[in-house]
Structure formats: C-alpha cells, structure tokens
Write a structure and sequence with these properties.
The chain is α/β, with parallel strands linked by helices and 230 residues long. The protein has 2 domains: 9-126, Rossmann fold, CATH 3.40.50.2300; 133-228, Arc Repressor Mutant, subunit A (Orthogonal Bundle). The protein has helices at residues 17-29, 40-50, 66-76, 89-96, 111-126, 159-169, 178-186, 194-208; strands at residues 9-13, 33-37, 54-58, 60-61, 64-65, 81-85, 103-106, 133-136, 139-142, 147-150, 153-155, 175-177, 218-221, 225-228. It is elongated. The protein has a 5-stranded parallel beta sheet with strand order 2-1-3-6-7, sandwiched between helices. The protein is built from 8 helices and 14 strands. The N and C termini lie far apart (43 Å). The protein binds calcium ion. Residues 15-16, 58, 60-61 line the site of calcium ion.
Length: 230
C-alpha cells in the first residue's frame, strides 16, 4: 500500500544493524517509507500489517532462510520481492531455486543504485503482461494463461524458462542476443553467470524439441545468441 503521502513502502528484512540503519536513512532520503524487520517472524507480521509495495529480503536471517519468505510472498501476492545476497555464490542459489524473486542484489551495494532498482522493479511489476499466442511447430504458447503445450500436451515450465520462451517467440525467426536475454530476464547484472542462461536454454530444448540434440526450433547462434524458428 502506498502510504497516505503517495510514497512507496519498502519492507526491509535484514538482520545486520549497519545495513538496516544505512537503508532506513538512505531510502527515506530517496523518498521511500522504510519498514524494517530483523527476523522472518517480524517480516511476516509487518507484511500483513503494513502491506508494503516491495520487499527487500536478505537471505541469511537469524530464524531461517529468506528464500522461504520469498516463496510465501510470491505464491500469495503480486508484491515484488528483491533478494539481497551477501555472497555472489548465493546468486546461483537464488536463481536456481526459481523463487519468483523480481530482482536480486549483492552486498555491498550502493544506495543510489538500490533506489533506482526498486523503482525499476515496481515499473516492471505494474506493466500489463504482453498477450502472446504463438504456434511453433507442434508447440503452442499462451502467455495470458502462462501455458505451453506440445501436441496438445501441457509442458511444465519454470517461470524463467517460460519468460525466456516468450521472449524468443515474440521475435520469431529473429536472433535474440545473449545480452538481451540477460538484460530482460536477469536484469543485466554482471553477477549473472551466463552459464545460467545456457542451462535454461538446454532445459527449454529438452522440453520443446523432439530431439534436443538436433534442435529444429531453438537454434543457438554461436557467440551471438538464440533464434526460435517456426
Ligand atoms: Ca543476514
């Protein structure tokens, strides 16, 4: 809920006092209203009581792992969650778990950058979904229902796999560069291991191709990017 003065309410879940102080001062100066929780229990309480617009969530917390709360929030609301990780190795964990986080950020971060990223996340989450119905061979993609079928049979897709497929399908027959994929799906963070992208492409191929070793649709353009052929 935007507060009565129209400011964005950020729920900061963070147990390191120095970060909490810096965030409270920095984000307040940047025009945000900050609600701080130092434990998951407090975060759950404040989430209900204060209805934040966005959650900034640390991974390692005294009473558990932030990823649990991320799952709860994304499963039950459309409020975007930004995961904060202390080490870059945790980025792989956060991405690998397909938590539905809207962004992730690694410590140490610059407060100015953080404010811009929070606003970008809110813009993205407010954008209406693009309506795409595309047929690629026996594959049918329905972006409104977020469903993919092959020969009428529903395919299970992770959120990122689906978004990647829609991105490629919306530019059918055209090359989409690796950078474009990373920008769109992993927000261009230089911390993203680009192998993560290859892993998603591989998994997508296993699902949509009849012979993943000889892809007929999802083509790799070496050193450039990918193309989805009709
Ligand atoms: Ca922590």
């Amino acid at each position: 809920m935007v507060d009565p003065d129209g400011r964005i309410v950020v729920l900061v879940v963070e147990d390191e006092a120095s970060y909490v102080d810096a965030l409270s001062i920095g984000l307040s100066a940047d025009g945000f209203v900050v609600e701080a929780a130092t434990t998951l229990a407090e975060a759950r309480r404040l989430f209900v009581a204060r209805k934040p617009d966005v959650v900034l969530l640390d991974v390692m917390l005294p009473d558990g792992n932030g990823t649990e709360f991320c799952r709860e929030v994304t499963a039950t609301s459309s409020i975007p969650v930004m995961m904060v990780t202390a080490r870059s190795e945790e980025v792989d964990v956060v991405l690998g778990l397909e938590l539905g986080a809207a962004d992730y950020i690694t410590k140490p971060y610059r407060l100015r950058e953080l404010g811009a990223r929070i606003r970008a996340v809110l813009r993205r989450s407010a954008a209406p979904p693009v309506d795409v119905h595309i047929t690629v061979g026996a594959i049918r993609i329905d972006s409104t229902r977020r469903s993919v079928t092959r020969g009428g049979e529903e395919l299970e897709m992770s959120r990122k796999e689906f978004d990647l497929l829609v991105m490629l399908a919306s530019r059918l027959g055209q090359v989409v560069t690796r950078d474009e994929c990373l920008d769109e799906l992993w927000w261009g963070s230089d911390l993203t291991d680009s192998r993560t992208l290859d892993t998603h492409i591989k998994r997508l191929r296993q699902k949509i191709e009849v012979d993943p070793g000889q892809p007929a649709h999802l083509i790799t353009i070496r050193g450039v990017g990918f193309r989805l052929d009709p």
